[in-house]
Amino acid sequence: MPTKDEVFEKIQTALVDALGVDDEDVTPDATLVGDLGAESIDFLDIVFRLEKSFEIKIPRGELFPEDVLTNADYIQDGRVTDVGVEELRKRMPFANLDDFAKNPVVQDFGSLLTVADMCRFVEGKVEVTD
After folding, report:
1. Contact 130/47 with Cβ under 8 angstroms?
2. Quick one: fold of 1-58+113-130?
3. Residues 55-88 pLDDT 10s
4. Residues of the chain with CATH 1.10.1200.10
5. For range 41-67, the mean pLDDT
């Protein structure tokens, strides 16, 4: 059972390796897209590295529910509808979506996910000790 610090360290290593950033750039508040420069293709590599590092399975769309952002039931005029925001909250309980919900522009969604969100996601998949 990893500690929260060990979860962060493994995620930090995965992001450094996948994105080619420096250790000190990977802070809890750093956003994957805005601060660390992740692109959609990088998310597959990140998921692979997390699965390997933590010996877990992450089904497609569980960490990055991009299918919500391309579903006409949840998108209108380039914005996520209230129903879409609720679907994202349901599928991403590890992420704070409050600021995004105030102005839910689809193209801004990628800048939302932080390293701390990823830590909470992994902590929910593995047993963590203090």
Report:
1. no
2. 1.10.1200
3. 999 998 888 888 898 899 999 999 999 999 999 9
4. 1-58+113-130
5. 92
